[in-house]
Automatic annotation (TrEMBL):
This protein's record includes keyword Hydrolase: yes
Lineage: Eukaryota, Fungi, Dikarya, Basidiomycota, Agaricomycotina
Binding site for ATP: 18, 20-23, 116
Role played: Broad-specificity nucleoside monophosphate (NMP) kinase that catalyzes the reversible transfer of the terminal phosphate group between nucleoside triphosphates and monophosphates. Has also ATPase activity. Involved in the late cytoplasmic maturation steps of the 40S ribosomal particles, specifically 18S rRNA maturation. While NMP activity is not required for ribosome maturation, ATPase activity is. Associates transiently with small ribosomal subunit protein uS11. ATP hydrolysis breaks the interaction with uS11.
Protein name: Adenylate kinase isoenzyme 6 homolog
GO MF term list: AMP kinase activity; ATP binding; ATP hydrolysis activity
EC identifiers of the protein: 2.7.4.3
One GO location term (cellular component): cytoplasm
Pfam families per record: AAA_18
Subunit field text: Interacts with small ribosomal subunit protein uS11. Not a structural component of 43S pre-ribosomes, but transiently interacts with them by binding to uS11.
Protein's organism: Thelephora terrestris
Length: 183
């Protein structure tokens, strides 16, 4: 197998549903100094049939993580992607250059999920997960501390500041990897 050079980083944007992952990813694609492709993993899973079944009670797909990893491997190896999902532990460490965990006050999160018309049971579960730092802890447990950053995501100013911060990180990554990075 020929070795490829990853010329742009792989960024994971994760957080409890409603923290602004997709909005951050979409703006980052626009603002990035390098070409990045946003992969909304939930949509990717549905489009490509990478699930075992559908859980009607929770209104969500049960993801086949092995199929998902296999399908994403070529893109992750090439680099230049943003993986946007509520989980981060499935991604192999060798893929990931930066993990951004978005955090939001549970009251604001509750309002956002109500606006999305989530069932009350799902709102409660997601708020409890945010309060208990479930996804943040998952990131801390899955990746080296120097690549995990937690950012507040409660208002437009947070969004703009966070994206600007990630853009600066990308510039630093490119400076440190002028010829790209071999996997």
């Amino acid at each position: 197998m020929a070795s490829t050079t990853k010329v742009s980083p792989v960024i994971v944007i994760t957080g409890t549903p409603g923290t602004g992952k997709s909005t951050h990813a979409e703006l980052l694609v626009q603002e990035s100094p390098v070409r990045l492709r946003h992969i909304n993993v939930s949509e990717f899973v549905k489009e490509r049939g990478l699930y075992e079944n559908f859980d009607a009670e929770w209104d969500s797909y049960i993801v086949d993580e092995d199929k998902l990893i296999d399908e994403l491997e070529p893109s992750a190896t090439a680099g230049g992607i943003i993986l946007d999902w509520h989980a981060c532990e499935p991604w192999p460490e060798r893929w990931v250059d930066l993990v951004v965990v978005l955090r939001c006050d549970h009251t604001k999160l509750w309002e956002r999920l109500e606006e999305r018309k989530y069932p009350n049971k799902k709102i409660v579960e997601n708020n409890e997960a945010e309060i208990m730092e479930v996804i943040a802890q998952e990131a801390r447990d899955s990746y080296a501390p120097e690549i995990v950053v937690e950012l507040k995501s409660e208002c437009t100013e947070d969004l703009e500041s966070n994206v600007a911060r990630i853009v600066e990180w990308i510039r630093a990554w490119k400076k440190d990897h002028p010829e790209g990075e071999r996997p």
